[in-house]
Amino acid sequence: MLSTTRESDRRRGAVSNHAVMAIIGLLVLVSLGVLLSQMGQVKPAKSAGGNEKATTSLTFFCAAGIRKPVEAVAKRYLEEYGVQVNLDYGGSNTLLSRIDTAKTGDLYLAADESYINSARKKGLVAESLSLARMKPVIAVADGNPKNITRIEDLLREDVRTVLGNPDQAAVGKRTRKLLKASGHWTKLEALVRQTGTFQPTVPEVANTVKIGGADAAVIWNTTTTIVDGIEAIEVPELDKGEVLVTVGVLTSAVNPTESLRFARYLAASDRGLKEFRKFGFTPVDGDKWSETPELTFFCGSVNRRAVEQAIKSFQAREGVQVNTVFNGCGILTAQMKTITDKKLTGFPDTYMACDKYYLEIVDGLFQDAVEISDTEVVIAVPKGNPKQIKSLADLARPGVRVAVGQPDQCTIGVLTRQVLEAEKVYEQVMANVVTQTATSALLIAPVSTGAADASLAYLTDTTAEAEKVDAVRITSAAAKAIQPMGISKTSRNKHLARRLIRAITRARSDFEAAGFHWRFDTDGSGS
User: pTM to 2 decimals?
Assistant: First the structure.
């Protein structure tokens, strides 16, 4: 019995030892896992607002001639936000070809906006931001030893000229276009092939003159401020070739929100554009920098269903806040006029009207307006049309209760008055009006609840309530509302506002699903 007891104790001890070892092993594995996890993490960096954010990196394809300001901005951005911008330089066209082949990278800066437009048409660029302007000039060694003063001097036998390769560098492409127009290209190209050289990037072109490998070159005016030992000669044939330096967010961007944030930093008047100015560029009138900028968007109620998803997606992608105010356009424009009297505090950055009539009222306050969609004014009746209303004249029948929009508060009210006057039934129909609403969105409820027999509403509103109401079409040219959108002339975020408009103009399917007819002509351009 004693032997049996000892054997049992021995086995229990063995089991206990195994359990202890298993627990110890598990703790070691957990500790090792934590250690490996910490090793794999990137050290957080402080943002400007003091919040911690994981360090990331961006791949940036940059035109070689724009290297200096971009390097300075990238260094400052790393210091402020802990984001490493890995710069890859080359000729604008060379970089575009690489991007097109590899379909990788986050950002692409071209010396000429035309390359960004080409990239957009190829589906390689989603958004673009303008940065600065520059133009081509003749570059010569300091002191201009060959006394070059005009384009014709480049055709002299004693002048060796170096040019950017038109198939690689933006400056070469622009030079070829300008000098073909002036009639100098054919002879100059032949001379360059005989006695000069073509280079793939503008810094290489400039340095060839600097070291005495050529007597003259055509480069950007900004390059002469960056490269020592050369000076610029301006000539009328090249003055016409001003270009817009532009950065694009690539569709291949792994983190488009972070890419857009750096692009906004690069394009901010009080951040990146200050560096461009230092290096001789002429910066655009950029937005002020904000880590999370805000836009105020006034929008006529009829547009709400069509724009809400586009706004939501825009906010998420850009990392910004859009404060949208939906209401009748009469109310919105009256509010704008009140704000104007109070020095524009709270004035909208963008405004999308229910009809162009209400943008014209405040036309002096907005710019860059585009027409996005249109919709019809129809007669909304209960499902099945129990009163058998078939025309505007039927709304004047005795006993027919009508709902309309208030003309001083909403566009539908103005259009209702216009169409009734055009059809010469205004007084008769208004005698049957039982309710007037402040917005078009409130015109379906009286019909669907039985409070009215008909209302003059937008086709889009009846589409949304198709289970409850029917729409009777009106055969009148006056029965159409066109929805325009513009940017406030006083907005501090005009470039961001332009991208919001672009995001909305990409939402064609949302507009058509809401019952609108699409008007915007997408041509691949824009910011």
Answer: 0.82
